[in-house]
Amino acid sequence: MQNLRFDAIKNISKDAITYNVKASEKVTTIFGEHVFTLKTARHYLTDDAYKSLVASTKGGKKIDRVMGNNIANGLKAWAEEKGVTHFTHWFQPLTGLSAEKHDSFFTLKGDGTPIQEFEGGALIQQEPDASSFPNGGLRATFEARGYTAWDPSSPAFIMEIGNGKTLCIPTIFVSYTGESLDTKTPLLKAIVALDKAAVDVCQYFDKNITKVNASLGWEQEYFVVDAGLANARPDLTLTGRTVFGHAPAKGQQLEDHYFGAIPERVYAFMRDFENESYKLGIPLRTRHNEVAPAQFECAPIYEEINLAVDHNTLLMDVMTRVAKRHNLLVLLHEKPFAGINGSGKHNNWSMSTDTGVNLLAPGKTPKTNLMFLTFFVNTIKAVHDYAELIRASIASAGNDHRLGANEAPPAIISIFIGKYLTDVLNQVEQRVSGNFDETDEAMLKLDIHKSIPELMLDNTDRNRTSPFAFTGNKFEFRAVGSSANCATPMTVLNSVMAETLKNFKVEVDSLIEKGEKKEVAIMQIIQKYIVESKKVLFEGDGYSDEWEKEALKRGLPNVKTTPLSLDAFSSDKAKKLFENNHIYNHLELEARHEIMLESYIKKVQIEARVMGDLASTSIIPSAIKYQNVLIENISGLKNIGMPSSAIASQQAIVAKISEHINTMAENVEAMIEARKKANEITDTRSKAISYCDDVKGKHFHIIRYHADKLELIIDDSFWPLPKYRELLFLR
Ligand code: ADP
Ligand code: MG
Predict the structure, then answer these.
(1) Half-sphere CA count of 682, side-chain side, radius 13 A
(2) pLDDT tops 60 at residue 461
(3) Ligand 1 centre distance from Cα of residue 298 (Å)
(4) What is residue 655's predicted lDDT score, i.e. its pLDDT?
(5) Residue 44 to residue 64: CA distance in whole angstroms
(6) Of all atoms in ligand 1, which is nearest to the CA of residue 301?
(7) Which residue's alpha carbon is nearest to atom 2 within ligand 1?
(8) CATH architecture of 191-584
(9) Average pLDDT in the 295-312 region?
(10) Which residues are registered as beta bridge partners of 331?
(11) Is the pLDDT score of 444 beyond 70?
(12) Which of 50, 9, 151, 167 is nearest to 102 (CA)?
């Protein structure tokens, strides 16, 4: 271990930077090169097959066997030309990662002749064993078998690894009896639900609107560390975060990393993974240094949510793979390093119509203004009414370290809308109800769009502290963790929005039936919603202690840990919401709740084990070695007759080391005991709570405290783990 650390440090300066991307390579020539886009499909498919593919892509139309075969043939022809040998259904089970099982195009005919084959059946459906993926008990109730089914709305692509190429077919993953076992299935359902509810409301304003698409633009934060150094940190390799490590002399206090010049080696890596991403059709647009040393961010142009989610999942995979070529390790964990910023993944979310209107962009005419106000206020209402569920949608063991930790939004869900829109809502609220007909002229003529520049000015650091912020023409959900699959928060957001819009329509319709004018009815319900949900609006500093107190007064939920926040998934309110909108049935919801709790337990369990191992087999032994050196020194000094004043400091250090060792060892023992007790608990929720409170809560901090103190005392050459200063600054 000790050698590993110093070897790694030595090797860094020897590593030459790998430049894999040719300077002449233009994005426009490679973009989508590995994607079976509709344009490519046009070339490889018969007219009928092409039409059938387009219909299923755009209108969700089913593809029959014959057409399936035709499309598969075209896909195979295209893929073979590109040197592809295998294909796989590519899906996103509840592990949070993507999954694939490759099959060769190659097969044998009855007479033993080798041929290449890809049939419609293999394109449309496959049967991986569902029992090896998290299924939350759905396996016990039903069958172990599950199947993956093609999602034509996300195009097939070619994954290139080394010189191996695989055709990937994006699919959903469901149990044999149809329960969803992945993140994509519910997302697709939520997208449909929101489309329908939003179109219904849009009809008040424009009869031509027949489709509403929700969009997502994610911003992926990540850390990059030298792979050699990381290899000497078992905590990083096993958990994605450092469970020990004292803050370095220099951290992020100089604020010199944010938007600074990108370090050369990381830059070469970025270019490389961006290039791979372009080939896969991921429209990356921005890259920059983030606040913490060794922290970076990239973001694409926003896309339809399903595609955006697939692209983010793919990107995380591509980044991880490409990093290897550069002897780097990408850390997607929410909090790889204590004491400096963690990583999030802002989810920029908006809705737009097939008539080309962004429903969250303030309009230029009274009519579009009212439409904007409708969707804007409905979003606020949705987030207010389902704050717990929204909080639960971003809950994970990793995100628990980040939320509320000084640099990330707290676990309280609030919305920032800026000064101008706050004024607008106040004006609407203060109208005497029912008084709109006299003054609706004035109301509808609000020059909301003119406020945009002002709104942007208001886009200060202060609003950066909000977990859910309106940023001009979209809402930015910032509490999402960097390693998360965006499908879960997006499923929840779309579902609560669909439900809220449905109720809105019912309320407005009932006023219209009573004889109210349409615009007036709409204004009245908007007003009602503002009154009902304004307590979720907050413009101040979300990181401050005052906000926690204020939020408590307002009665806003503030659930800090994952096991408790996940309760929102099993509440009657959630069941009703998801069932009403056909997203999850009760069984699926319970299974999901169970899976998320299990995942939490496993992650904390692994961290606890790594902590115990490292403390007992690396840190304490190093401390003892150094202590022995001191003891030898003390007895040597005594032997040559030095006075006790000459050995006082050494003795003090020896005593300190003993104190730290003992407290650490005691706590490691106690943590192991706590784990044993937790493991005996059969109820998953109680077990997760016990892991959270008894294993992690009672012991992690104290074990770490003493390990980090030892790091400051022990001879540097004895310290086995690469230090923060090395991980964060050497590359
Ligand atoms: P910032 O860091 O200031 O939030 P970025 O440019 O890093 O800005 O990220 C903004 C993200 O929001 C990008 O992914 C962008 O494509 C996306 N975005 C912009 N407009 C919309 C919109 N109307 N709907 C959804 N996402 C959007
Ligand atoms: Mg942002």
Answers:
(1) 0
(2) no
(3) 11
(4) 97
(5) 18
(6) 16
(7) 219
(8) 2-Layer Sandwich (3.30)
(9) 97
(10) 223
(11) no
(12) 167
Q: Cα 463 from chain centroid?
A: 21
Right CATH for 31-182 from 1.10.8.50, 3.10.20.30, 3.90.1150.10, 3.10.20.70: 3.10.20.70
pLDDT at 436: 54
Which residue, judged by its Cα, is nearest atom 14 of ligand 1? 217
Q: Which of 291, 348, 464 to mutate to test the pocket of ligand 1 (most atoms within 8 A of CB)?
A: 348
The contacts of residue 572 (CB under 8 Å, 6+ apart) are: none
| Backbone φ and ψ of 215, nearest 5° | -115, 155
Expressed in angstroms and rounded, the spacing between residue 161 Cα and the centre of ligand 1 is 30
pLDDT at 515: 93
Other C-beta atoms lying within 10 Å of the C-beta of residue 238: 15
Three-class DSSP category at 350:
strand
Tell how far the Cα of 367 is from the centroid of ligand 2, in angstroms: 29
> What is the pLDDT at residue 129?
72
**Of the given ranges (23-32, 52-61, 257-266, 359-368), which has the lowest mean pLDDT?**
359-368
- CA of 217 from ligand 1 middle (Å) equals 5
Token look-up 């077990």 returns: 687
DSSP 392-439: HTT--HHHHHHTTSSSS--SB--EE--HHHHHHHHHHHHSPTT-HHHH
CB-defined site of ligand 1, < 6 Å = 215, 217, 219, 286, 299-302, 346, 348-350, 358, 473-474
What distance in Å separates the CA atoms of residue 244 and residue 117, rounded to the nearest whole number?
52
219 CA distance to ligand 2 middle (Å): 7
- Work out the burial of residue 567: count CB atoms within 10 Å of its CB; fewer than 13 is exposed, 13-18 middle, 19 or more buried: middle
> 464, 474, 486: which to mutate for ligand 1, most atoms within 8 A of CB?
474
Say how many Å lie between the CA of residue 49 and the centre of ligand 1.
Answer: 36
Ligand nearest to the CA of 350: 1
What is the CA(406)–ligand 2 centre distance, in A? 18
How does residue 452 score in pLDDT terms, banded at 50, 70 and 90? very low
Give residue 296's region: left, alpha or beta (phi > 0; psi -120 to 50): beta
* Class level of CATH domain 599-729: mainly alpha
Instruction: Give the long-range contacts of residues 518-526, CB within 8 A, separation 24 or more.
Output: 518/204, 519/370, 519/436, 519/440, 519/444, 520/436, 520/437, 520/440, 522/204, 522/370, 522/374, 523/370, 523/428, 523/431, 523/436, 523/440, 523/443, 524/433, 524/434, 524/436, 526/373, 526/374, 526/377, 526/428
Whether the Cβ atoms of residue 91 and residue 148 lie closer than 8 Å to each other: yes
Q: Which atom of ligand 1 is nearest to the CA of 218?
A: 14
C-alpha distances in Å from residue 1, one per residue of 228, 240, 246, 329: 12, 18, 18, 19
* Residue the block writes with tokens 């896309």: 303
Q: Give the number of the atom of ligand 1 that is nearest the alpha carbon of residue 217.
A: 14
Work out which ligand 1 atom sits closest to the CA atom of 299: 14
Delimit the CATH 1.20.120.1560 region(s) of the chain. Answer: 599-729
> Burial code of 695-731, b = ≥16 C-beta within 10 A, e = fewer?
bbeebbeebbebbbbbbeebeeeebbbbbbbbbbebb
Question: Would you say 145 and 127 are in contact if contact means Cβ atoms under 8 Å apart?
Answer: yes
Ligand 1 center to residue 215 CA distance, Å? 10
- pLDDT at position 409, please? 75
Q: Which ligand is nearest to the CA of 283?
A: 1
More confident residue, 232 or 66: 232
- Counting from 1 in the atom list of ligand 1, the atom nearest the Cα of 361 is 23
Measure Cα distances from 400 to 120, 178, 454, 553, 556 in Å: 44, 32, 34, 23, 18
- pLDDT at residue 458, rounded to an integer: 45
Q: How much is the pLDDT for 450?
A: 46
Higher pLDDT, 2 or 114: 114
Q: Average pLDDT of 311-324? A: 96
For atom 11 of ligand 1, the residue with the nearest CA is 217
Where, residue-wise, is CATH 3.30.590.10 in the chain? 191-584
